[in-house]
């Protein structure tokens, strides 16, 4: 059963996007109660009762705390802050803004979706690329970060050989391709051999630089293609981007239980909640309409059930996915009517429902309103 401390740590992953801080440091977390049956009740004091971010903060709280082992149910009790709490919060928010509260250049309003898996070769990079493009087609600004520092594959998959450039202040501009913004070590080095040569030098810091020195701009979504496995990169990401959530890719045949344990363990150690599972390389339908389940079936559903998260989509096995990846034109673009493309678009739509875009009211607007409300209260006779 998680302790109150564990829950507070998990709540550091709930960011108030407008105030640019997490709800713990902003003093918004009140009483936490853990019942022996795994029901956790979290008290959250909102700046104002009709806070526009209320449901977002509630949902994020439920997801983050719900991801902890042993938690069976999360109840959120919201209250409105007292005047004193509010002015404390305001000074924290101001201090944050002054002292550069954003350790990364990823805007606090950007939803971060890390595409990971319990093992390699299941199609993470293909899924990340096609999802990113499909989310962009829904009308969002999308970034795609290739966090597979050594085994990068995104440049090939989107068909770019452009090179990242940095300005005098060492700020890097992402490459634009397929309507999304891209960053990958493959956009720095000339060949896999050069990548090896650079290994341990600048590249060991690549991930950190990609988050801190890239001018991502105001992205709605940042999709991250994770390296295989459950190691350091995952932990580093979770530390630098506490708002990150994970989509787990699996094939239909995987011994779901084994993968589930690994993924759940990673999620728990990094406080990175799993939003859902995407089954990839599901059945293949040949030109004559015959259906073959080459890699078995049911693995995605099984994994989703054992993690207690939704199965977001099943992407069929289709040569067009390989072809699109090899030719540098993701299947959702090169062959939109392909069953795999249809499934990728459905996955993007579902994902945007599960991880809704942040409210786009500006921080300044909200702070201005808060100050007004405070002034009005102060003018009122006690
Ligand atoms: N739905 C699919 N249908 C057919 N081929 C696919 C599908 N998804 C991925 N592939 C192919 O499988 C291979 C592995 O995919 P990909 O590189 O995306 O996996 P990965 O999980 O990122 O691998 P790694 O763990 O090495 O990073 C690629 O050749 C890709 O084109
Ligand atoms: Mg990959």
How many helices in DSSP terms? 14
Ions, cofactors and other ligands present here are: adenosine-5'-triphosphate, magnesium ion
Instruction: Provide the CATH topology of the largest domain.
Output: Rossmann fold
Strand content: 15-25%
- Rg, rounded, reads 22 Å
Main CATH class of the largest domain:
Alpha Beta
Overall SS class: alpha/beta
Helical content stands at 25-40%
Could you describe the largest sheet, including whether it forms a barrel?
8 strands, mixed
Give the strand tally.
Answer: 17
Question: CATH superfamily of the largest domain, called what?
Answer: P-loop containing nucleotide triphosphate hydrolases
| CATH architect. name of the largest domain | 3-Layer(aba) Sandwich
Distance between the termini: 45 Å
Mean of all residue-level pLDDT scores: 83
Tell me, briefly, the overall form. Answer: globular
- The domain count comes to 2
Low-confidence stretches: none
Q: Which assembly state applies to the chains in this document?
A: single chain
In which order are the strands of the major sheet placed? 10-11-7-12-6-13-14-17
What does this structure look like?
It is a single chain. The protein is 39% helix and 20% strand. It is of the alpha/beta class. It has two domains: 4-104 and 359-379, GMP Synthetase, Chain A, domain 3 (2-Layer Sandwich); 111-354, Rossmann fold (3-Layer(aba) Sandwich), CATH 3.40.50.300. The strands form five sheets. The protein has an eight-stranded mixed beta sheet with strand order 10-11-7-12-6-13-14-17, sandwiched between helices. The longest helix is centred in the last third of the chain and has 17 residues, at 363-379. The N and C termini lie far apart (45 Å). The model has no long low-confidence stretch (mean pLDDT 83). The site of magnesium ion (MG) has 5 residues, from helix 4. Magnesium ion binds at residues 124-125, 148, 153, 225.
């Amino acid at each position: 059963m998680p302790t109150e401390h564990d829950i507070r740590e998990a709540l550091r992953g709930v960011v108030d996007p407008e105030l640019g801080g997490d709800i713990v440091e902003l003093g918004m977390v009140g009483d936490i109660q853990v019942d022996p049956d795994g029901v956790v009740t979290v008290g959250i004091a909102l700046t104002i009762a009709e806070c526009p971010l209320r449901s977002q903060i509630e949902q994020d709280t439920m997801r983050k705390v719900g991801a902890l082992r042993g938690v069976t149910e999360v109840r959120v009790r919201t209250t409105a802050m007292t005047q004193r709490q509010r002015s404390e919060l305001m000074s924290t928010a101001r201090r944050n803004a002054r002292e550069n509260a954003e350790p990364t250049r990823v805007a606090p309003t950007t939803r971060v979706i890390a595409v990971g898996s319990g093992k390699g070769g299941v199609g993470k990079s293909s899924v990340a690329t096609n999802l990113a493009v499909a989310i962009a087609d829904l009308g969002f600004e999308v970034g795609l970060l290739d966090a597979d520092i050594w085994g990068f594959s995104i440049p090939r998959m989107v068909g770019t050989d452009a090179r990242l450039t940095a300005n005098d202040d060492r700020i890097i501009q992402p490459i634009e391709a397929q309507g999304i913004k891209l960053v990958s070590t493959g956009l720095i080095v000339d060949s896999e051999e050069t990548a090896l040569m650079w290994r341990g030098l600048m590249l060991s810091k690549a991930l950190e630089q990609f988050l801190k020195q890239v001018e991502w701009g105001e992205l709605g979504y940042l999709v991250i293609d994770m390296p295989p496995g459950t190691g350091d990169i995952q932990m580093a990401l979770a530390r630098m981007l506490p708002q990150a959530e994970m989509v787990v890719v699996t094939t239909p045949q995987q011994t779901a239980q084994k993968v589930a344990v690994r993924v759940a363990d990673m999620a728990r150690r990094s406080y990175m909640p799993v939003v859902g599972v995407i089954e990839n390389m599901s059945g293949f339908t040949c030109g004559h309409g015959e259906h073959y389940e080459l890699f078995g079936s049911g693995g995605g559903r099984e994994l989703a059930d054992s993690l207690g998260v939704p199965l977001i989509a099943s992407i069929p096995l289709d040569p067009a996915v390989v072809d699109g990846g090899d030719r540098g034109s993701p299947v959702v673009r090169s062959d939109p009517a392909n069953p795999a493309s249809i499934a990728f678009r459905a996955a993007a739509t579902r994902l945007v429902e599960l991880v809704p875009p942040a409210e786009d009211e500006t921080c300044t607007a909200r702070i201005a309103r808060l100050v007004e409300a405070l002034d009005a209260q102060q003018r009122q006779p006690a």
